[in-house]
Design goal:
- Helices cover 31% and strands 21% of the residues.
- With 243 residues, it is an alpha/beta fold.
- The strands form 2 sheets. It has a 5-stranded parallel sheet, with helices on both faces.
- Helix 6 runs parallel beside helix 7.
- The longest helix is centred in the middle third of the chain and has 22 residues, at 71-92.
- The radius of gyration is 19 Å and the shape is elongated.
Amino acid sequence: MSSRLIGVGVGPGDPELVTVKGVHALRAADVVVVPVMDTGERGRAEATVLHYVPEEKVVRVVFALNERTDRARREAAWDAAGERVARLLRDAGSVAFATIGDPNVYSTFTYLAQTIAELVPGTVVETVPGITAMQDLAARSGAVLTEGTEPLTLVPVTAGVAVLKDALAGPGTVVAYKFGRRSGEVAEALRETGRLQDAVWGSALGLPEESIRPAADLDGAPLPYLSTLIAPARRDGSRGGKL
């Protein structure tokens, strides 16, 4: 019987935003792996998972999630994590990997699945979609992501502010992920493109320290790394105007 690796999206932090299918996948797996930083602190994925499965079923695996500059160190950490999960697959057979947001959107699960394909050939890889931070922020702030024929562009600011500026200069709504450390540059890009007024940002969504504010309040002070920004499309206010 083939081993199974299931990437389960557990949402942006609020345990009530895990799907029913996600909960079933977590509970059905023999082992649930949660990624942790090498500092050992409990992350959002682990905190969410513990609402649904007993702690003894959870295995914490270091993924060097906070390593941005040393590629060799990051690759070594990924290799070590892959080896650990490969051993679990050989012993347990069914392993769920919990990831914040969705496993197919900027997720560590992508790299893990690639590694496992090489280490444990024949492993069946599946994913269970999760609610993303942009969906949660839209719901909590009242920002409409798309109407009619509007496009939606998602940009990780780790790709550079120039990429964000290009997106803001185009049509439709722009969502920026991972912009907290460059909030001043992001605010300036919004001003230059005339997109500041309606934009909103949020962090720690669904958690006690949640913050949701107008982008106009950005003053350049560092924000949490996983902050999310929504700059809605330019709209004239008419109903169905983009149809």
